[in-house]
Amino acid sequence: MYDANRDFLTIDGTDFSGIFDGEGSFTTSRSGDSVGFRTDSSGKLITWKNTDNTITGTITLRADAKTALKKLRQLMNTYKQFSITRDNRNPGGQKTSYINCYITNDGEETKNSSGEPTARTFSFIGENKITEEGVY
Asked: Domain of life, per the record (predicted)?
């Protein structure tokens, strides 16, 4: 069973553990490789592989995580490049590092029907990831 207390996230040297807004609050996806085609002068197809290791993702933080929200906003406003390390120590978990990342969007500051702030989602992009599969 997943235990959030065994899932650690560090962004630009700051600990972001325990401030996510539920499961699925840290998501990533890889752009993936594609195959390109063109034709030479004789009409023969030439193929090549377009390698793309770009990672995109989102980080959703609770509204009361003021320091972390300020840190992510600061990273976005200063266009600072940073790294993210996720160390999931749950059974079957792994340690993953995302390098050369940038915050690309800070989501919207919204409030629920009671007037209380809701969770905030930040989007990021990274150049690559390094994963230690099945560490735990």
From this structure: Bacteria
